[in-house]
Design a protein that fits this description.
Number of strands: 8
CATH class of the largest domain: Alpha Beta
Shape: rod-shaped
Distance between the termini: 23 Å
Radius of gyration: 37 Å
Largest sheet: 5 strands, mixed
Strand order of the largest sheet: 2-4-5-7-6
CATH superfamily of the largest domain: Histidine kinase-like ATPase, C-terminal domain
Number of domains: 2
């Protein structure tokens, strides 16, 4: 049975350590008896001392548990008192056994008070017992606090990631509904109906996906195609999409719908304003243990860098924050003008489903 299994059962942990402690006491006493040439019968005294010590000192567990909630001064004072009382009680069976087995060495014991002899030295042993108990209890408390802190941090991270993921839905929904409204006003009802159908499929996908769950790059591309089908209904031949995903990158895991807001930005700023439309390229490859993704377009680029700090930079900011929460400094987003066009490059550690399962 491992220590982790023992730790799951507090009673089993206590009694196992309690037993091992008194067995160790018996071995130490036996080694001392051999060293000083004690008679063989003395081993019986050691055995009785170990067994009675195991039984009598067990109550200290509940005494220590009660003391744990008290101020330090009270804990020390009453702790010493409990250790002394336990040692006093323990010396009775030990001294009685010694008198019974070695009567010739016990002639000097003239009264009942002598049966409590050795209490002071035994008190040190009980103090050590209590010290070990408090030490284990303190370590356990620290571990529980650490686990609680990690759980709270994980919950906070999960809440932040869900907030960032769900932030995309209203943003995307607003733009798409505006487009559908325009199609209806232009009496393009068939196209508008297809757009509504595509929108419902895409929203169903986003709702079914756990924001905390990662998907493969291939699955991300499938989700993007649901979104792009809606946009192609709006723009027709004005929108050209090119995928350049390496085979080794297709099985790498990534946050779901990470690229969608970047593509949405590219459509909004590089395709929609121009009569001739534009081209969007989505690339991906693995280099040096890092997954490199990019979304680039052939539009006018970033004319005003303030786009990253005002309301129009929601998509890029959202992507930056999601990568920072998930990967820390190892998750980066770089934005460059390519003349013509804009290139947004993402980089974060390449993880496969097989690696996570291992």
């Amino acid at each position: 049975m491992t220590f982790m299994q023992l730790n799951k059962n507090r009673n089993l942990t206590f009694w196992s350590l309690h037993l091992m402690g008194w067995i160790a006491y018996g071995f130490v006493q036996y080694a001392g008896a051999l060293l000083y040439g004690k008679a063989i019968a003395y081993t019986k005294v050691i055995f009785i001392a170990s067994v009675t010590g195991f039984v009598i000192s067990a109550w200290l567990r509940y005494w220590c548990r009660w003391l744990w909630t008290k101020p330090p001064g009270v804990m020390i004072g009453l702790g010493l008192l409990g250790a002394y009382a336990t040692a006093l009680l323990w010396r009775i069976p030990v001294n009685l056994a010694y008198v019974a087995l070695f009567p010739e060495d016990s002639e000097h014991m003239s009264g009942w008070v002598d049966y409590f002899g050795g209490t002071v030295s035994s008190t040190y042993l009980m103090v050590c017992w209590m010290g070990l108990y408090f030490g284990f209890h303190y370590y356990e408390s620290m571990q529980q606090q650490r686990e609680a802190t990690l759980r709270h941090a994980a919950l906070a991270q999960e809440a932040q990631l869900k907030m960032l993921r769900y932030q995309l839905n209203p943003h995307f929904l607003f733009n798409t509904l505006n487009a559908i409204s325009t199609l209806i006003l232009d009496n393009r009802n068939t196209v508008a109906n297809s757009a509504v159908t595509g929108l419902s499929e895409f929203l169903r996908y986003t709702l079914d996906q756990d924001p905390m769950k990662k998907v493969t790059v291939a699955q991300e591309v499938d989700a993007l195609n649901l979104y792009l089908e809606i946009e192609k209904l709006r723009f027709g031949s004005r929108l050209t999409i090119e995928f350049a995903i390496d085979a080794n990158a297709s099985t790498i895991l990534m946050p779901s719908l990470l690229l969608q807001p970047l593509i949405e930005n590219a459509i909004k700023y590089a395709v929609s304003p121009r009569e001739q439309g534009g081209k969007i390229r989505i690339g991906g490859h693995v280099t040096g243990g890092m997954l490199q993704l990019e979304v680039s377009d052939d539009g006018p680029g970033m004319v005003n860098s303030a786009r990253l700090t005002n309301g129009r930079g929601v998509g890029i900011r959202n992507t930056c924050e999601r990568l920072q929460v998930l990967y820390g400094e190892r998750g980066t987003v770089q934005v460059h003008n390519t003349e013509p066009g804009l290139r947004v490059a993402l980089s974060f550690p390449a993880e496969s489903a097989a690696q996570l399962a291992a």
